[in-house]
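SAMPLE LOG
Freezer: B-3
Tube label: C17
Construct: single chain, 222 aa
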Amino acid sequence: WQMHRKVWKEDLMAAIAQRSSAPPADFLSAVTATRQQGDNAIGLEYLRVKVRGRFDHSKERYFYAPDPSRGPGYNVTTPLEIAGSPVIVFVNRGFVPETLKDPASRASGQTTAGVDVVGLIRESGHPGRFTPDNNPAQNMWYWRDVTALKASAYPDGKATVMPFIIDQEAFDAAGDGPKGGATIVSLTNRHLEYAITWYGLALTLAAIFAAYAMTRLRATKA
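STRUCTURE (predicted):
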């Protein structure tokens, strides 16, 4: 079973690597095409896309993202009103240190003009065992919950919001604006290790049984 999982994980990792390095696809076209094809192994996750629109900076959301090299800070996630469409998608614009959490402290990066965003689609996640609960009332977020993001930013429920986030790629941010490139494309693959462990346990049990059987056989002959 673990060997089958190993092959599955390797195929998944190869698909993610191919997606994340491919030329960016038009966002709305890619979403429509993928949905028409039906479910697949990873859906839209890590699909590299491009989209143009305007940020609504009044609805910034802050994901706690301490960085070992840069200290405490946040990934700034902002709704993007897609050009020529009523659709909205949240964009993780990237990291700001805690000292620049207040938008007024980085006004030069809060452009109101149309922008082109290139990044990877990330679907809603799940909290880890020790991940704190999101606190929408305090605008403190710890894991991707797009349904809760939509409810907090558009409580009347009338906005058409995509059920995933785009992690914006690294780019030359204006002034002290968020620094893109927050996505970590990494999956663990320890299934070979697990398989070896199970094989080892099986061999150990087989050896114990063989020793037990030999002891019983000698006792019977005696």
